[in-house]
Amino acid sequence: MTETMTSPSGTGPAAAAGTRIMVKADSVHKSYGQLDVLKGIDLEIAAGEVVCLIGPSGSGKSTLLRCINHLEGINGGRMWVDGKVVGYDIKGTKLHEQKHNDVCRNRTDIGMVFQHFNLFPHMTVLENLVEAPRLVLRQKKSQVTARALRLLERVGLADKAGSYPRQLSGGQQQRVAIARALCMEPKLMLFDEPTSALDPELVGEVLKVMKDLAQSGMTMVVVTHEMNFARDVADRVVFMADGNIVEQGPAAQLITNPQNERTRSFLASVL
Amino acid sequence: MSATAVKVEPQRTSPDQYTTVKARYPGRWVSAVVILGVGGLALQSVFTNPRFGWETVGKYIRDVSIVNGIGITLMLTAVCMVIGVVLGVVLAVMRLSLNPVVRTAAFGYVNFFRGTPVLVQLLFWYNLAALYPTISFGIPGVNLDANQIITPMFAAILGLGLNQGAYMSEIVRAGILSVDHGQAEAAGALGINRFHTMRRIILPQAMKVIIPPTGNETIGMLKTTALVSVISVPELLYSSQIIYARTFETVPLLIVASLWYIVVTSVLSVGQYYLERRYAKGGQRSLPMTPWQKLALFFNTHAPLNTDRLARKGGTR
Questions:
Q1: What ipTM was predicted for this assembly?
Q2: B183:A120 CB<8 A
């Protein structure tokens, strides 16, 4: 169904270097009625790269993230994930939006973590992890359960497999949510403000899991307000404002020495 | 203020020397006594008035035709509720469809069946043969006599079941809408398709909202089945009517029917309680206690020889 596109060669620095491009946005536009949320985003993210999207609220960073796995459709431009156009079939010069169930089938290798966790409250932690690989990937129960338990171990919640989400703290719930996304064995992980709904003392445990994940080589796109995390963990930080990418660069450089005036005033207000 | 209090009673320094006295509410005692008095008088009149015919009630309470009537009432309730729930889920999903024609069709159905009295609907189904003497379902070669297919029982099931579907759809729809949108989004992000999202993620959570009014509807349905006595289905009420038409013991037989209705609805209430508990799973940190557990706790804490409580009364902190 999906027309496989090799990303146009030689268009980006990473492509020129021969690295696999995991996410490529080419002039992506998105609007809600009159309101333009994304005004032509160009972005390339290489496999294994960790990119933090920062910016004031309403800058379009969450929307951009949600466009990557087609939770939001785009109105113009194109978006590739691992060389495939997400959510659309290309016919001539037109992007034909796929049916919902086809979109679902095609985004199984993109994991997503939400601000409010969105765990399934009627299932135990283990059931939360096992559900999608069983239903979507049709994998054997024993195989998925073994992997799920390994992942729970990895996020430090091996003893909570039988608990219900309500019985866990926010930080534990978010770690379960990360494990649930990883249980689908994705190539790309999207994080939408994963620590914004947490009590301050619980933020650290989630960031630690994310840091471990980053060090394991996972490609990650993280919308965050945690500047310390961005500086320490991200390979690159992208600053967005008013639906545009204003400035981007290596994490330490952008955060400690921003060039653009908007970036500077934003960082001054959050740091 | 606290400073002066300390000065007034300087000798009572230990907090252990104070005991708390509970507030008294004499009004509660008065209202309890009034209610018990009025209730007692009412009961006395019920049991001493010979016109209630308690002997006749006792004679017919386990009469074969009455018991058969209960069986038919229960069967009708069960079948019609199953039809209602299945139809309700289908209609609710249709109501939430993105297709305006599907959406409007479901709305039209609900509007029609909620907008006409169920008694009228029952009479309609009963008299269907007057509208369509033969039924072919549009299939050539099929030619069925409506009078033979639409028995009173079938008319009753159609009438009550289709009507219930309309009410159930509103309950199910409310349940589906009560589930946070993030649930469907999370399921979609994991690649779970629409059907499985509805069946495995949304509906199980919607059950918490759907079950209590459905229990209510089941109890309502049990009593509504009395309506089908007008199309001569021998359920509980009609069975009693047949007897009192012969013996003229109208009131005792209506009491027989009422007693059975109360017994059955009470049993259903207990079932509803445990069903609600089951679907509260994950909703609270721990399940609420059953009445038995609450009773046990009450007797435990108020037992005169409970050492725990005595120790607390002794004033240790």
A1: 0.88
A2: yes
